[in-house]
Amino acid sequence: MPTAQARHILVETEQECLDLMKRIGEGEDFGAVAAAHSSCPSGKSGGSLGSFGPGQMVPEFDAAVFGGEVGVVQGPVKTDFGYHLLEVTERTE
Question: What range defines the domain where residue 87 resides?
């Protein structure tokens, strides 16, 4: 079964998400941005969600993690929790 390791930043609005994505694209560290801005408790650890398999996250997040490229920041991904930026740091098939 595939597994992935990912980190994310959770914010309330799509615009916040886009602004943070721009900052990361301009060279700011993903983990530092997560620690400063994410409303998820994982922000304290740079947004790290650890290792998980398909179906363990909400469907929209799951699709992005298991369908997107490793090492590429993706987003905004809208879920019932808010808007996410996410980066898959590792994935096994």
Answer: 3-92
